Amino acid sequence: MAVEVVQETLQQAAASSSTTVLGFSPMLTTLVGTLVAMALKGLRDDLDDIDENDVGAKRRLALLDAMVEMAKNPDIEWNEKDIMDEVNTIMFEGHDTTSAGSSFALCMMGIHKDIQAKVFAEQKAIFGDNMLRDCTFADTMEMKYLERVILETLRLYPPVPLIARRLDYDLKLASGPYTVPKGTTVIVLQYCVHRRPDIYPNPTKFDPDNFLPERMANRHYYSFIPFSAGPRSCVGRKYAMLKLKVLLSTIVRNYIVHSTDTEADFKLQADIILKLENGFNVSLEKRQYATVA
Ligand code: HEM
């Protein structure tokens, strides 16, 4: 049913002469999710490598400072409106996506109480007798189980359920004698890629252990693409993971999460960002800790 919702959204966009999907042309040719894995089999791009090795202290200008500096350079065509556009993009991309991601993660913990118990146990191991202190960056590095819960949530409920690209040139696929012609709009449905039974056995089961290192090592590099991949992939993915960990850690340490819905009750709504038609029906019960006199 959920797949149908995504597909219906795409069809509606294709049928409407004025509608664009994520800013692309209405001339819509749908090449469903399998394409990305076929086309890119064995291929990785430079940005992903940089991303993996992106550790340690770096001296960089903050984005806003860099853009203001650029605006001062008479050799670069770049003005205040360009800065505002970029800031709007960051604000939109950074807000709705993480709010959908954290809401789905809370639903998952409310529904799968055994998993919530494991998340809480990990928090207890990290925070010990001081469960209500602020979370530090070092703490987040230890949250391995919570990280798996977040990744599994992004697998089943990717906040950006599809991406689109219009080809500027004929694209020869690496997977075989196929050429996708210039001008085609290619839709990649990460929602469907993430639920392929040949990649994820029992694909609809919420199982954070899908992200154990040994399982990840045995999967295609692009079998998990909630942040897209390549040169136009999400610039905020590390910040997003950090934000989700701090937020969910704080909520789970302070509250027990309950859900009145089961996953079978979910009615997915895919309008750019994936949501639930009837909202995220979770409730929070305050955790009681003994106070030190
Ligand atoms: C769970 C959270 C997030 C998810 C699932 C997500 C997903 C994505 C995806 C799939 C794209 C590619 C869209 C496309 O190609 O059409 C993207 C792009 C982008 N994201 Fe995120 N994102 C998240 C959080 C964030 C955050 C926190 C920020 C910034 C603070 C951010 C900033 C951006 C920007 C600026 C782009 C455009 C990059 C470009 O066009 O070169 N995202 N994101």
From TrEMBL:
Top-rank lineage group of the source organism: Eukaryota
Source taxonomy: Eukaryota, Metazoa, Ecdysozoa, Arthropoda, Hexapoda
Keywords: Endoplasmic reticulum, Heme, Iron, Membrane, Metal-binding, Microsome, Monooxygenase, Oxidoreductase
Organism: Drosophila sechellia
Residues noted as binding heme in the record, renumbered to the chain: 234
Gene: Dsec\GM19042
Chief location of this protein within or outside the cell: endoplasmic reticulum
Protein name: GM19042
Cellular-component GO terms for this entry: endoplasmic reticulum membrane
Entry cofactors: heme
Localization terms from the record: Endoplasmic reticulum membrane; Microsome membrane
